[in-house]
Design a protein that fits this description.
Blueprint: H1 7-27, E1 31-35, H2 51-56, E2 64-68, E3 72-77, H3 81-88, E4 94-98, H4 103-112, E5 120-122, H5 130-143, E6 146-148, H6 154-157, E7 170-171, H7 174-177, H8 181-194, E8 199-202, H9 205-212, E9 214-215, E10 227-232, E11 236-240, H10 246-254, E12 258-260, H11 265-270, E13 277-280, H12 287-292, E14 296-299, H13 304-309, H14 313-340, H15 348-359, E15 365-368, E16 373-376, E17 400-405, E18 407-409, E19 412-413, E20 416-421, H16 427-444, E21 447-449, H17 454-466, E22 477-479, E23 488-493, E24 507-510, E25 513-516, E26 520-523, E27 526-536, E28 540-547, H18 565-582, H19 588-597
Helix pairs in contact: 14-15, 16-17
């Protein structure tokens, strides 16, 4: 979160809002919904598509702006409540909370009280999936509203709009990917044909990157190229404006992939033979592209996502190696924090810069996997806080510091959160930290039958907090890509129903937390690998987790009287593993520091 809004910035945001309203009046539109996504339904987008940010001033990765001719609201979830309050302060936008109900349904309920019969609700159809647009059209019909999907204000009123990214793509070598492109394309087409189709349109950037072993830097922190990909039993086409070297062109040519410009995709699709049958994921393909197709369609979940979610042995070993280098970098980072915090000479931004420097000592490092969340004291309670020079707190020799960070390496992606004390922890801080740790440990040691979904495991991490009538508003676990998105599906661990069962080879985070506004935030996160567990004759096969992340918990914050003997052993065993795996990467001083942090409790 960037808390750097000045009065001038607020004036600019409100002026942008009025420019939008003027455009709406000229087009005969009474309301518009502006998501924070792009034509690929991405969670993180290039600057070119941040029109919601331009209109509202809100910069979180999840949030939807709704503007009528006299009102404006922004919907977001609990991760961003505090951030949104700060960023929207002084603007004409009203913050709306999304708890557990569907966001679009909440928005349409609000609009039903703002619009009149025959009023027009408009959207940019490129930014809404077929499913979302269909739901909106249906609700509009029930309320007597008109619905339009050809409304493009960003293309017409956004002066100074950033250019679309066209960075240089590069090959992700099979040495790290573990599977060649032909194998991936063949496996995908088998599923397509089993679903009664002869072609498929893939629009998710991470799926295209995985399928083609292709990476780029078009989106901050996620090494993807802005592209679409079409594949049939006779043709393979990538649509991208990225710079493609001779090596990349040869790589694509080896797999008979033709190259077309990004903007040609709609025209290309409109010319598909009416005798063709194309498979589309209605939750991912945009309404604009879906409507361009006149051939037969088969709707179904993308076959690429579940294939991508199961990591192969090369990827798994890459994750293990990346976690070792990452853990060593964190040793150096947290040593530096300890050595300098009490002097009052470093702040939250300095921590992020130092983290990038330490991780950058690895030859395989390709940048961070997200903006570091470095929250000192009350900033730690802002779940997705990102410090700026204007907002950064100076560290002192006491209080808690939450650091959530990750990196992109050619052989794996990392994501870790540690909460540490900078001195004089209070009894309440230790109590709360230990509650979060107990939930984290419970999920880590879980054994569960094959077929178990994340919603069935979520309570493991929350139970210690629930017992004291506390909880956290975000999910407990998200899937993670391999040198790809820090967040990926289809699996998850949270309180919302997700029918996707966990399976060996899936990677997930384990990150319970606790946030006390104005005081502090606590989160403890490791990355887990789903592996095969016990096999029984009477009860079937079970699964369990292997912990991939390697860095100690802050034992100064652990109230050992709250832990069971099993939990104490679990902490000590984990710390012993951290020592064994990280010591070969450390010099004498670093090794001594880590040995102190990993002492038995």
């Amino acid at each position: 979160m960037q808390v750097n809004n000045t009065a001038l910035t607020k004036y600019t945001m409100n002026n942008n809002l009025e420019l939008l309203r003027e455009y709406m009046r000229n087009k005969g539109v009474e309301a518009v919904i502006i998501p924070g996504t792009d034509p690929h339904q991405s969670e993180y987008v290039s600057d070119y598509w941040k029109f919601r940010d331009w209109v509202s001033g809100f910069t979180g990765s999840n949030g939807t702006a709704v503007v009528t001719l006299d009102k404006a609201s922004l919907w977001t979830d609990s991760r961003y409540f505090l951030q949104a309050e700060i960023e929207l302060e002084g603007s004409d936008f009203e913050l709306q909370h999304v708890e557990y109900r569907g966001e679009l349904e909440l928005i349409m309920r609000w609009l039903s009280n703002q619009l009149h019969e025959d009023d027009t609700l408009a959207v940019d159809g490129r930014l809404f999936s077929l499913m979302e647009a269909n739901r909106l059209e249906m609700i509009c019909g029930e309320n007597g509203f008109l619905f339009a999907t050809d409304f493009y204000p960003a293309d017409n009123i956004w002066e100074g709009r950033p250019l679309p990214p066209t960075n240089e793509a590069f090959v992700h070598d099979v040495e790290y990917a573990g599977e060649d492109v032909e194998s991936k394309l063949t496996r995908t087409m088998e599923i397509v044909e089993n679903n009664g189709a002869d072609s498929i349109l893939i629009t998710s950037l991470d799926e295209i990157a995985w399928l083609l072993n292709l990476r780029s830097s078009d989106v901050d922190f996620t090494p993807v190229a802005i592209a679409f990909f079409y594949m049939s039993d006779k043709d393979r086409v990538i649509f991208t404006d990225d710079e493609l070297s001779k090596e990349v062109r040869n790589h694509l040519g080896n797999y008979n992939v033709r190259i077309k410009e990004y903007g040609e995709v709609e025209k290309f699709l409109s010319k598909r033979n009416v005798n063709n049958t194309i498979m589309l994921d209605p939750n991912k393909v945009s309404d604009t592209l879906g409507q361009a197709l006149e051939c037969d369609k088969v709707y179904g979940a993308s076959p690429v996502e579940p294939l991508k979610a199961i990591k192969n042995e090369v990827q798994i070993e890459g994750f293990r190696n990346a976690m070792e280098r990452d853990g060593a970098a964190l040793v150096r980072l947290f040593m530096w924090i300890e050595q300098n915090a009490a002097s009052g000479t470093i702040n939250e931004v300095d921590v992020w810069e130092r983290g990038k420097m330490e991780r950058g000592k690895s030859d395989l490092y390709r940048g961070d996997s997200f903006e570091m969340i470095c929250g000192y004291r009350e900033h730690g309670a802002i779940v997705h806080y990102t410090a700026t020079p204007e907002s950064a707190s100076t560290l002192q020799g006491e209080g808690m510091l939450l650091v959530d960070s990750g990196a992109q390496y050619l052989d794996g992606t990392t994501d870790i959160t540690r909460t540490v004390t900078l001195g004089n922890p209070t009894a309440q801080e230790k109590h709360d930290f230990t509650l979060v740790l107990k939930g984290h440990l419970a999920l880590s040691r879980a054994k569960f039958p094959v077929g178990t979904t994340g919603v069935q495991l979520d309570a493991f991490a929350r139970m210690p907090l629930w017992q004291e009538a506390m909880t956290y508003g975000h999910g407990t676990g998200h899937g993670m890509g391999h040198f790809l998105g820090c967040h990926e599906g289809p699996h998850s661990i949270n309180g919302r129903l997700n029918p996707v069962a966990l399976a060996p080879g899936m990677v997930t985070s384990n990150e319970p937390g606790l946030y006390k506004t104005g005081e502090y935030g606590i989160r403890t996160e490791n990355i887990l690998l789903v592996v095969e567990g016990p096999k029984t004759e009477n009860f079937g096969n079970f699964l369990e987790f292997e912990t991939l992340t390697l860095f100690p918990y802050d034992t100064r914050l652990i109230d050992t009287t709250m832990l069971t003997p099993e939990e104490i052993k679990q902490v000590n065993d984990y710390h012993q593993m951290v020592l064994v795996r990280l010591l070969p990467y450390l010099n004498e001083q670093e090794a001594a520091w880590l040995q102190e942090k990993c002492k038995e409790i």
